Amino acid sequence: MIEKLFRLDGKVALVTGASSGIGKGMARALAAAGAAVVHVARSEDALLQAVAAVRETGGRADHVAYDVGRIDELDGLARKAEACFGPVDILINAAGVNPRRPWQEITEKIWNDTMALNLGAPFFLAKQVVPGMLASGWGKIVNIASLQSVRAFKNGLTYGASKGGVMQLTRAMAESWSADRSGITCNAIAPGFFKTGLTAPLYEDENVIRALARQTITGRTGVVEDIDGLTIFLASPASDYITGQTIFIDGGWTAK
């Protein structure tokens, strides 16, 4: 009984940003729990590698190469994703960008592109798949928030604004879609510092990483596998009575 709470057999997951970093790791974890996973990102080559890695371990995986920042065309993505394994039961909005610019260098294009991918895409893609979730009576939406949802970091004005929005968007999505026993939940994961493509510049300086590790309670920065358990939990029946929440997975950074 307990094990079944965390199994995803027969479920279909769509994961954006699934070609690398946290998104790739979340897609791998969902497949290991039994879900059929549609990997979405812009790079066809990277997607093929991610899908191959899942299939090598016996998982079910396919991909759709798509620019999720094109929020006016996300209905096309939803249709292509559903052509792989059927209607989407689990949506993971992991695609994101962090321009890391001082305020003087933030242009209208940088601002709009960041908001479109980090904040707009999670809503407008969810809008496409929620009707199917409502029809089936079950669905899971997981957004990616950040330490910058609640903290201000240097050169993080645009990214911080978008991730603060994700935290509130998650609450609003839950209020919109979790009512009346719909079976849909919407939550967010807020990672601390993990070595990914977005944070690679930080990891070039060992002194910076040691300083960041000291800010945690655990004394280290994260590895992508640290997110596996929470991903499966929020995507599985085990979390059916949790919605509208942002869960920080940061080694105790925000508790210190």
* Count of DSSP H/I helices: 8
- Mean pLDDT value: 95
Shape verdict? globular
Q: What's the number of domains?
A: 1
**Helix coverage percent:** 40-55%
Task: Write down the CATH topology.
Answer: Rossmann fold
**Tally of strands:** 7
CATH class: Alpha Beta
Uncertain stretches of 5 or more adjacent residues = none
CATH-assigned homologous superfamily: NAD(P)-binding Rossmann-like Domain
What would you say the CATH architecture is?
Answer: 3-Layer(aba) Sandwich
Order of helices and strands: HEHEHEHEHEHEHHE
The Rg value, from CA coordinates, equals 17 Å
Percent of residues in beta strands?
15-25%
Separation of termini?
36 Å
SS-based structural class? alpha/beta
Could you describe the largest sheet, including whether it forms a barrel? 7 strands, parallel
Strand order across the biggest sheet? 3-2-1-4-5-6-7
